Amino acid sequence: MTSITEGGCACGACRFELHGTPMITHACHCTDCRRLTGAPFAVNLWIEADNVVLKSGELRSVMLKGGESGEPCEVWFCDACGTSLWSRYHVAPGNFRWVRGGALDDPSSFAPDVHVWTRSKMPFVTLPDGVPDFEQFYELKDVWTVESLGRLRANIEAHGKQSASDRGEEAGP
After folding, report:
1. How far is CA 58 from each of CA 11, 75, 114, rounded to the nearest angstrom?
2. What is d(CA 80, CA 77) in angstroms, rounded to the nearest whole number?
């Protein structure tokens, strides 16, 4: 049976479900994530887009250029209150979402597996012992589980190496 994790926006208009678990959970310390969340880092759950189900509410999205990577990043947020719910980083192949851990009903559901972009972390943030951290990004094969790498490969095979916008498809949750 597939586990379901629920979440939503600050005003309650948007509710969503995650079907299954993320392939990996990042604590991202890049300047973009800090600006988007208003926090010293963002907890992002990397999961297949098909496993992110909007149950209620209306979403809007905006396409941004990543300040650290320079690559396009699409951010979906509640149309009513503006809470950022998830992103799509177009540098990554396949069809994935990076769901904001803080938008989950239980934000402690998924602890970060890795800290990324630590070169721009706030000086008052102390990284935990035993959790890998990287000044920028990392080689997936060095960090991910065999199961998660298999899910990644399956998604890329199903959706191609280009993002939805690169294939001329409409963006959506």
Report:
1. 12, 14, 31
2. 9
Does the pTM surpass 0.85? The reply is: yes
- Our measurement of the distance from residue 25's CA atom to the centroid of its chain's CA atoms, rounded to an integer in Å, reads 8
Instruction: Dump the DSSP string for 16-46.
Output: EEEES--SEEEEE-SHHHHHHHTSSSEEEEE
Q: What is the C-alpha separation between 108 and 55, in angstroms, rounded? A: 22
Residue 65: the pLDDT is: 82
- What contacts 154, CB < 8 A, 6 or more positions away? none
pLDDT, one tens digit per residue, over 74-95 is 999 999 999 999 999 888 889 9
Separation of alpha carbons 24 and 112, rounded Å: 8
